[in-house]
Amino acid sequence: MSFVKSKKPTAFDWVNYSLILLISLVCIFPFLYVFSVSFTDPEVYVPLRFYLFPEKWSLDAYQYILSTNSFLNAFKSTVFITVVGTALNLIVSFTFAYGLTKRTLPGYKLIMGFVIFTLVFSAGIVPNYLLIRELGLINSYWSLILSSLTNAWSLIIIKSFLESLPSELEDAAQIDGCSDLGVFWRIVIPLSMPAIATFTLFFAVAHWNTYFNALIYLTDSNKWTLQVLVKTLVIDSNSSAAAGAGASDEAVMPQETIRMASIVLSMLPILVVYPFLQKHFAKGVMLGSVKG
């Protein structure tokens, strides 16, 4: 019976460990500062002072911002866009990708060529805006949902994943009299749960973090998404929207605690969902990237 001696860390290893630790701390400290300021009691908060941990814990900033109409409207808008957009993304992407796995599909090469073309070239901001305007979707949530129903990268990854599934299962189902839609719903979808979980989070994070499109397509501040409102609170604190959210009312609450609380609230839903879907990432994406 042989034993493999463990290799002692070298100076190079220690240097790598130190650099990784330093980079990790640099990434963690801003989050700690944001959380610390957001939970700091307004009575003891001192501007321009670094807080690693709150001197006195308080939920006043969260209670205050959750009582404002601006934040609640932005939260509702973002939840609607995320839920509806993610559901439509999954439906369109997986049905489209499943069709692309059938090389006997009429016009397969042409359709696949269009997909690859959009992977390399895009119309640009102005043509996209003109298209949304001509469709009458300006200042509508559907301008954010329909303009990002799918993308070439997602289609190629999902297509590769679906092609890695055993084709014998589909053949057996068709022999038993199952239609193409039945095969897709009863065979393909259950086997695609890792990929579905992975792309659910990809699409949900993309919709939740929607900023630029919301900024140019939504003209009504009552329909703004969370990211647009948070940008307004953090950067444009003198604007009317920020004042409506309470950012300019220093007598009631310090501006900085309001800003940090809004940032935490905008990150919290994704931070809560992420751990439950993280285990599917490597399995869902790697299965679609390798085909033997």
UniProtKB/TrEMBL annotation:
Record-linked PROSITE patterns: ABC_TM1 (PS50928)
Entry's transmembrane regions: 12-35, 79-98, 110-129, 141-162, 183-208, 258-277
Q: Where does the source fall among the domains of life?
A: Bacteria
Q: How does it sit in the membrane?
A: Multi-pass membrane protein
Q: For the ABC transmembrane type-1 domain, which residue ranges apply?
A: 75-276
Q: Where in the cell is it found?
A: Cell membrane
* Coiled-coil regions listed: none
Enumerate the UniProt keywords alphabetically.
Cell membrane, Membrane, Transmembrane, Transmembrane helix, Transport
PANTHER family xref list? ABC TRANSPORTER PERMEASE PROTEIN MG189-RELATED-RELATED, POLYGALACTURONAN_RHAMNOGALACTURONAN TRANSPORT SYSTEM PERMEASE PROTEIN YTCP
The entry's family comment says: Belongs to the binding-protein-dependent transport system permease family.
This protein's name = ABC transporter permease protein YtcP
Q: Which organism is it from?
A: Saccharibacillus endophyticus
| Highest classification ranks of the organism | Bacteria, Bacillati, Bacillota, Bacilli, Bacillales
What gene makes this protein?
ytcP
